[in-house]
Design brief:
- The structure is a single chain.
- The protein has a domain at 8-44.
- It has three helices and no strands.
- It has helices at 11-23, 28-40, 49-57.
- It is elongated and about 90 Å long.
Length: 84
Amino acid sequence: MASITIRNLEDDIKQRLRVRAAEHGRSMEEEARDILRRVIGEAPSPRNLAAAIRARVAPAGRVDLDLPDRQPMRKPPHLGRKQR
């Protein structure tokens, strides 16, 4: 098994981890392992952008927009030289 060292951890975070570990009746290391397992092990992030966007907006539901009626195309502008 691998091990890691976490440097520059804020005192507040360490204290909250200590309290949380005590509430669950385990060591700070075991509490940190559990947090990492749950967060990292939840779901792999999608590898393609379309899937990532779809997963992010899908919970909001579908929205149907009212589109305006189409109008006939305008005559294109004349871009050539003026004739004399």
